[in-house]
Amino acid sequence: MAVYVLVMLLVTAFAPVLAPYDPIxxxxxxxxxxxxxxxHLLGTDELGRDILSxxxxxxxxxxxxxxxxxxxALVLGTLLGxxxxxxxxxxxxxxxxxxxxxxxxxxxxxxxxxxxxxxxQGATTLILAIGVLSAPLxxxxxxxxxxSVKREEYVDAARAFGAPTPVVIFRTILPNxxxxxxxxxxxxxxxAILLESGLSxxxxxxxxxxxxxxxxxxxxQRYLSTDPHALLVPGAVVVVTILAFGILGDALRDLLDPKxxxxx
Length: 264
What we know:
- The protein is mainly α.
- It is built from 11 helices and no strands.
- The chain has one domain (2-7, 57-263): MetI-like (MetI-like fold, Orthogonal Bundle).
- It has helices spanning 2-18, 51-87, 89-104, 108-119, 123-149, 153-160, 165-173, 178-201, 213-220, 229-256, 258-263.
């Protein structure tokens, strides 16, 4: 699965070069061509657009949004969690109760739909919405880990030598709680892809005619009985990509936390 993730990242970076056709170029004479046809390895959709090209460019869209949202969630959530766990008291109440718990109280898809409805479709809106919705996952991990390490001897030693609070937090505590955060990063990418695909399936994701795996599934379902490849190909890519990032997260957990591997 790590090889698959690497391939997807390469496709994301070089999609304009690797794709055999323009992903929005229509050819009505070649509509719904089956897979393995000459010139169209994965066939074409109802408008004659090459599915392989659309899957490649869709990967570029999906992973750009997923990585952007996950990075935003990583920074925002980790900061909230460390600050809340380190200072405790009123700071903990504000960060972990008034912010994190409030976000967690609402279903992610509902808040994402609200954000898209209010601020319109587009990659920026999706990155901001998914990033904010995913931040509590990082916040809870960072909060729990900070509570565990903030009383360790090396943290007390840093304070005793007069290290400023930002140095204690970002150069002493953060490196020692990074392993579970890295694992969560991989898992959150998978969740972000799923959420973005769901929004695109509902017509609230990337603005057409830009390709998106979710919108490709939505368009292909109308032809399931006659030309199932239009749905099955993008659907399979979504499933395998989410599975690949999930397995990668489990592998990173075993690599970075051998104790967790022994417990399992």
